[in-house]
Structure formats: C-alpha cells, structure tokens
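Thread title: Can someone regenerate the structure for this chain?

I was given the following input by a collaborator and told the matching structure tokens would be attached. They weren't. Posting the sequence so someone can regenerate them.
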Amino acid sequence: MAVGINTVYQTVLYILNKEQRGYLPPSEFNSFAELVQLEIFNSYFPDGNQLNRYNQNNTQNNTEFFNIFENNRYKLYPFENEIDFEFDTISNSWQPTSERQVRLLGNIISTYNSTLTNTTPSAKINPKLNSITQNVSKSDYDKIVRSKLTAPTAKYPLAYQTNSITLAPNSPVCLVISPLPDSVKVNCILEPTKPTWNFYTGNQGQYIFDNTSTNFQLDISEKTNLIIGILKYAGVVVNNPTVIEVAEQEARKVEVNEKS
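Best answer:
Regenerated them for you:
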C-alpha cells in the first residue's frame, strides 16, 4: 500500500502551523517530497547489503513476519518491473523502453525465434528458445566471446552492460548481447515516479487537493519517515532551527529502531 501524498502534505502543514512556524507552498512541498522519497529509496540498497550479512551469519530474527531482510526487500517490490528492451542499430545494443530510469538490472531473458544453428536438433520441435542471459563485465565478455570453447550460444547467451549517447535521457543503460536475440526482457528496479500534490483554486483563493495528484510509491511503513524528512527541509525554508532539530532527532530514533 502506497503513501497518500495528500495525507503527508496535510500533516506537514499541521505541524508547521501548530505553533505558527510557517507555511510550505505546494511547489516547495513537491520538491522536498521528491527529494525525500529518493533518499529513502536509495537507503534500501546499503541497508539491504548490511541486513544480508546478518542473514548469512544467522544473527537476525528469521520468523515469518520479523525477518528484517525480507521486510526491506518487500519495500522494493513497487519498483520491480519486467520491461522490454528494443534493439538500436546505431549502437548495436538493447535499450529499455520504459520512460522511467532503470536503476538495477536483474534477470535478462533473451528470446531466439530460430535456434536451429545454435542448439541441438531437438530444437526443431520447438524453435523458440527463452534463455537466461549471463551479465558479465566488458573485459570478461571480450575474453569469453573470443574463445571457441566458451563462445556464447542461443542456449547460453552472454551480455554486458554499457551506456550509449543514442539512449533516451531517462534510461542511460543498455545491453550488448551475443548471439543477437530476437527480443529481450529484463527484470529491473526502476527509479520511483515523482510525487506531486496537484491542486485547483477554490472560490476564496484556497488550494484544494486535485485527484490528478501522484502519490508516493513507498510502502505505507515509510509514512513517518517521509513526514520527518520533509519537515527537516521545510525547517530550512521557514528559517526555523527548532523544526530541523526536532525532525532530525525523530529521524535518528526511527533509524535506530529499524536497525536494532
């Protein structure tokens, strides 16, 4: 369940206005909301590495609802998507079709519609082959494809990740795959969509929440972290050190509680 942006904004306004500490207009709130969501999203990866070490050492709780590694992994589910890649003849590489920026690549599935020259005669029965593609570094790729013994085939294709000037600006990542497949799908972690609190103006000039707004993509458990994070930046705008100090104290409490 995602976090509603209107609930977060109204809570932030209430806390700021409670003791006349200032007002945060929608444009500034939206900027802070995007920044804080990205900060929380980015924290999942180093946190995941740390928690995975606990998993490997058997030093953490592993019961059904209290496995903190799995809980952290669960928070990434809204950003996990299987997307199509399309072939770019200029760079001779496969590029994501998603409008959102690709953060991490997972399993790469290369499809070969005709595999008769790459596999055993049994492929004649089912000429379509979906192969999990090994993703290696550029140096390893160059070594493997040059060897007759390890050269990639349609059954065991090989890929490396690179960048290209022909890419769409939102997805600066592409794949070179050998042998050349007919189509490619990749399980990816995508960057979060930009949260936006949209409004229309009422009869008295007030801002009224518009349903065209975009909610946060983060899990509902991050609601408190979002509010605290936005308040921290809002304290700078309204020039109130107390807001910043209180927000930072609460943020530290939440972080210690989550990792203890």
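The helical segments are 5-18, 26-56, 68-74, 138-146, 223-237, 241-259.
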